[in-house]
């Protein structure tokens, strides 16, 4: 019988309105593709975020990352920090898949740009990861370059959530986690100028007693009848923010840092063993790789507060969406993660 103290509907986070899809793809040009691997002990996959439909190697986008807690094995963050440019799609998967996906991104770029690494510079592939080893057999090394291409072939503005793609084997708050997405529309001034901020998370963090759902300490009530969980936080989350606001890399780093506010609202304290990484990019202005002089229009910093609020709200919303969308999953060695919906019904 459903506990009357728990919510039946997905709550809307904050006061800002969502975009048409309540998805990162509400930012025009952004598409997401999944490839899901579901075979017994192999419960994993790949998720790809394409910021625009063109050639990112020749038409890069401003981007920045914020490492809230750096327990992670990602690729590409060093050059992103230095140059502030995104030049490949963003690939998400499990920890042991980083190498295969980096090779896949390089090969994908070389096919579109045959002189890459010869007369042209090398490419900075970007791969971000979480450890799905509780449900997935990491040692199977199941993710291969072909799965990146399948995710790329599946790119769409419609984004499946929950136990799909890179989220297939992920856990959150001792429950089933995975992929979540959301968006918010922020109005900046009295003239009604508005921009969209979209989020996609790979949610694999948290302890049940600490779960806060839209301000409600739901996890403490759910955990009250269980043996106390004293295990340290060892999960991770990757948080991707996209916006159509004209921002440079410095401003995008400020936006990425606000992802931590949304994460904290759900009950995370960014534990020692947690890899909590946020990345933000702007689609407003592409930067040509061979340009000698850049002329970019940028928002003034004093207008950024509504975008900061939007970033925090849609990150929190995306985490909530991942919890509500995920289904109960049985993985390697009989390990099970109940979905939030099933846990609420128990």
From TrEMBL:
<keyword id="KW-0378">Hydrolase</keyword>
<dbReference type="InterPro" id="IPR005321">
    <property type="entry name" value="Peptidase_S58_DmpA"/>
</dbReference>
<keyword id="KW-0645">Protease</keyword>
<keyword id="KW-0031">Aminopeptidase</keyword>
<dbReference type="Pfam" id="PF03576">
    <property type="entry name" value="Peptidase_S58"/>
</dbReference>
<dbReference type="GO" id="GO:0004177">
    <property type="term" value="F:aminopeptidase activity"/>
</dbReference>
<comment type="similarity">
    <text>Belongs to the peptidase S58 family.</text>
</comment>
<dbReference type="InterPro" id="IPR016117">
    <property type="entry name" value="ArgJ-like_dom_sf"/>
</dbReference>
<protein>
    <submittedName>
        <fullName>Aminopeptidase</fullName>
    </submittedName>
</protein>
